[in-house]
Amino acid sequence: MNYRFGESAFVQPVASAQAPQQQRTTAEYRALDAAHHIHPFSDMGALNRAGSRVIVKAKGVYLWDSDGEKMIDGMAGLWCVNVGYGRRELADAAFRQMQELPFYNTFFKTTHPPVIELSALLAELTPAPFNHFFYCNSGSEGNDTVLRIVHQYWATQGQKLKKFVISRKNGYHGSTIAGATLGGMGYMHEQMPSQVEHIVHIDQPYWFGEGGDMTPEAFGLARAQQLEHEILELGPENVAAFIGEPFQGAGGVIFPPSTYWPEIQRICRKYDVLLIADEVIGGFGRTGEWFAHQHFGFEPDLITMAKGLTSGYVPMGAVGLHDRVAKAIIENGEFNHGLTYSGHPVAAAVAVANLKLLRDEGIVERVKNDTGPYFQSVLRETFAGHPIVGEIAGTGLVAGIQLAEDPKTKKRFANGGDVGTLCRDFCFNGGLVMRATGDRMLLSPPLVITRSEIDEIVSKAKKAIDATALQLGLS
Ligand code: PMP
After folding, report:
1. Which of 130, 211, 294, 329 maximizes the CB count within 10 A of its CB?
2. CATH 3.90.1150.10 is held by the domain 53-86+362-472
3. Residues 64, 55 contacting (CB under 8 angstroms)
4. Residue 263 CB–ligand 1 contact under 6 Å
5. Cβ of residue 306 lying under 6 Å from some atom of ligand 1
6. 3, pLDDT greater than 60
């Protein structure tokens, strides 16, 4: 790209589906990618044989690939592009900050305006008891940071025995060693002979898959009470914290029954166990509330954030500390944790611009009052009685569509992963990015999506799921 200094060139409106400017052919990109790039969570042999999809441009809720194909992004990138693609305000904020102060650290008694502004703004946007924030570069680092804070907190309380952190099977908390250990993805643990100590997992509140004949409410209570059993087994004096995503994202957009979180909170309070909400996906408007724990009506002690904090325009993560935790950390000497880029000025400036858009354009409110309810009702109407749809889970602009061999009896496919992949391939061919996790299809579009764009996503999803049913002989 050629552009002159002082001219913003990377937010050109894409007026139509014309092929975007690019420097190489798709075949050249694929060959170079295969030769030099190892992708996350990928079987590289298989990927290199098939060739990667090359995304070259995006605007609003749309993506374009290197062949000029236009797709609607039902996943907001990777659950993160909350304000949509191509917002000039964010590009301008980064540009200005890079000229003013591209980097300075926040160690050694130093700070800078963007990180100050961001912290003050987060204190405004998070619930009242959250007034202090620690910064990092990703959700995984956020959860590593959370562990460090939890252990330091209990040390300051003279309770050093409190070391165990209880998490959940099929939860996702990142891919650093601590994040992956906290997460309950067995396939990740298998590749990690060495894991972080003092982390144990209880079962997930996945009613459709594991609830049997129980009502959702009874099942939600039973799964929450596993926490109490685990705490009693370990000894409450040894248990430091419980961590959970308010709804499981990567695990399949699994929404817990309404009884689950109140019971989890009761148990944490009873045994003096810190409650951590991993809001990396749920935060910044996804459910129509600023934070997903507000939707579920509980109050965590620590909040992990990333993704929507900057809408993914630049990497940034953060941990929010409840006043009682913050006080203990602040008043008890040095906290030996930090990253070169903690509170990076460019990331902080972009985060501030992003949060102002979410607030001042009423984007979060629109998800709550308009587009969220619309999305949920169109999905439920469209798939009511569908031969292979077992449930629609979700609220606001996030949904999990459960594929099932027999929706009435909740019978799942024996080869659920293959069915999900088949459906996902139909989606891509039909111009929709919809993710598959096993036998659940996931949607989490940018929060700026309009009603007509929602109609487009849902009708494309319907076509793909119909095609899947047809191929399986179940339509
Ligand atoms: N926590 C949750 C709930 C997540 O969904 C993710 C990523 N999808 C992470 C943590 C890890 O974030 P990152 O990939 O930015 O390290």
Report:
1. 130
2. yes
3. yes
4. no
5. yes
6. no
Could you identify the residue written with the tokens 């004096």? 237
- 281 within ligand 1 shell (Cβ under 6 A): yes
Average pLDDT score over the chain: 95
pLDDT score recorded for residue 20: 52
**Any atom of ligand 1 within 6 Å of the Cβ of 413:** no
Instruction: Give residue for tokens 């109140």.
Output: 262
Q: What is the pLDDT of residues 371-402, one digit of tens each?
A: 999 999 999 999 999 999 999 999 999 999 99
> Measured from the CA of 250, which atom of ligand 1 is nearest?
5
Residue 158 pLDDT exceeds 60: yes
Helices (H) and strands (E) in the chain, counts: 18, 15
Atom of ligand 1 nearest to the CA of 138: 15
- The Cα-based distances of 85 to 89, 205, 446, 453 in angstroms read 11, 34, 8, 14
Establish whether residue 139 lines the binding site of ligand 1, counting it when its CB lies within 6 angstroms of any ligand atom: yes
* 90-360 carries CATH number 3.65.10.10: no
What is the distance in A from the centroid of ligand 1 to the CA of 139?
A: 4
For 284, list phi and psi in degrees, rounded to 5: 65, 45
Which has the closest alpha carbon to 97: 110, 82, 112?
112
Rounded distance from Cα 280 to ligand 1 centre (Å) = 6
Residue 138 Cβ < 6 Å to ligand 1: yes
The string of pLDDT tens digits covering residues 111-121 is: 999 999 999 99
Ligand 1 near 278 CB (within 6 A): yes
